[in-house]
Amino acid sequence: MTFKGFLGAALMMATGAASAGDARFDWFGYEGNDAIYRFVKPTDSQYLNPILSGFHPDPGIVRGGDGAYYLVTSTFGWFPGLPVYRSTDLVSWSLIGHAIDRPGMLDFSGLGLSRGVFAPTISYRDGTYYIANTCVDCRGNFIVTAKDPAGPWSDPVWLPDVGGIDPSLFFDEDGRVWLMNNDAPEGEPRYEGHRAIWLREIDPETFQPISDAHVIIDGGVRPEEKPIWIEGPHIYKRDGWYYLSAAEGGTARGHSQVILRSRTVTGPYTPYEGNPILTQRDLSEDRPFPVTSVGHADYVQDDAGNWWATFLGVRPYDTQDHYNTGRETYLLPVRWTPDGWPIILKRGAKVPYLDERPSLPKAAPPSLPTNGNFSYRDEFDGAALDGHWISLREGHGDWAKLDGGTLILTPQADGLGSGRNPSFVARRQQHMTASAATAVTFQPDVNQCAGIAAFQNDAFFYALAVTLDEAGNRIVELRRRAGETEAPDGIALASAPLKGDTKAPVRLKIEANGGSYSFLYAEGTDGPWQTLIAGADGTILSTAVAGGFVGAVFGLYASGP
């Protein structure tokens, strides 16, 4: 599909013939085939988790003025940032835009890939949508607004008096607007990871504070246990109670969600004795098909009066907590206890892959599936790249063009490990067992290469490309970078000569199977696939090894002087 809203005027793909030295990509194909989905199949009355597979962390959700539901997730240093999804049944989700889709809105240049935009929250009030967010290392907390959640979104309104991360808005019934956020506690932190949730009233027009801030959670719901990283706060109102929900325990296996409540918005807030209301940290690590690290939940009420929670979780493929698909978005119903506490999941219960659908009219499935096993192929025949394509930090420059069913990438000196904005467009890896392939026509100059990459961040990636050897002969080569101590373009692992017509395409493929990745190539449009390397270490693309908060992607690139 063509995704017009994604690019904006500054990012519309130019058209025209390729120049000498450009790489021409005829198509990009992806296929996911996870074992769990071969026997976990939803009936008409069920839905499948995660609802957004692959790198979709920190979901924020709201019911809009049109009765539909809108969901936004973190993107850190990827551009465009903060994807906005729409659904009418909380199950079928379609990408409709991005809140950060113009290069001048934020400055990601020079940032580590897991910096940039952190956890967003989305709100709606009286015809306007609000996203509160943090641009870490790039000016801090801000708010953007839109009349249409598909965009355009406003330029950021900065909140220079609000520190920390994870700002969230609460619109009270009396017209007052409150902002809560994570920040350092009052005084000196008592231990590593000691944080607090702060609350202040803000002006509904300027969004600037009009009251002093005060702490409403110090450390967590059981301060004596020294809980870490209280964050992601939200306030909801029900039956005269103000409910304060937050994540606690960090975003790894100890992650959880906790709940407190008060009769007044400013507190004091009393924690639920049965906290946490969502976690998987007490379960056996060797259970089959685990979902771990759950938390960072947000609630929404449907038009039938039922409450639902979106939250992040991960799907590791081994007991060492290796996962390459990043933090994904899940959905579960909220159960209210007789004394009025909202429980997402009972302690000891596993996050289910299947659950009963909301009692809402069933929507048509999205044009591009967001979960389960699926495949797609982009023929590059639209007017612009669709919104599922992302790039590093600054978006597409004049190094990317679409030309009659071909994506043309011009090599740049900035390569995949440069920490800048290479000629690289990518899509999320959404399955543990997956493949990505392309066909590229490329006659490289010295030190140029073009091909397909499996990329986690600037320091951890594999790159399979057409290039030249030292004698000037055209070859296919696999390179790997596995840490910042290695050269920015990594090390060569294997190569093979290309003997076919230089004007014919070379097909390149990456096959992922958990922590094992294989790399294949073929000459021409129908030549046989040949394995260059099988069973390479894919754990270097996991969060456990590479660090940070993003997930792996498959993408197309061109680099060289």
SS-derived structural category = mainly beta
Low-confidence stretches: 1-18
Helical coverage, percent range: under 10%
What about the largest sheet? 8 strands, antiparallel
Number of helices: 3
Gyration radius over CA = 24 Å
Distance between the termini: 33 Å
- Whole-number mean pLDDT: 95
Strand content: 35-45%
Inertia-based shape: globular
How many beta-strand runs? 41
What does this structure look like?
- With 561 residues, the chain is mainly beta.
- 2% of the residues lie in helices and 42% in strands.
- It is built from 3 helices and 41 strands.
- Strands 1, 28, 30, 31, 33, 38, 39 and 40 form an 8-stranded antiparallel sheet that branches.
- It is globular.
- Residues 1-18 have low confidence and may be disordered.
Write the layout of secondary structure elements.
Layout (H helix, E strand, L loop, with lengths): L3 H4 L15 E10 L3 H4 L6 E3 L11 E4 L5 E4 L5 E2 L1 E7 L6 E7 L15 E2 L3 E5 L2 E9 L3 E7 L10 E2 L6 E7 L5 E7 L12 E7 L11 E5 L12 E8 L2 E8 L7 E7 L7 E2 L6 E2 L12 E10 L5 E8 L13 E6 L1 E2 L5 E2 L10 E3 L18 E4 L12 E2 L7 E3 L4 E3 L13 E6 L4 E9 L7 E9 L2 E9 L5 E9 L8 E7 L8 E8 L2 E8 L6 E8 L5 H4 L6 E7 L2
What tags apply to this protein structure?
561 residues, mainly beta, 8-stranded antiparallel β-sheet, 3 helices, 2% helix, globular, disordered N terminus
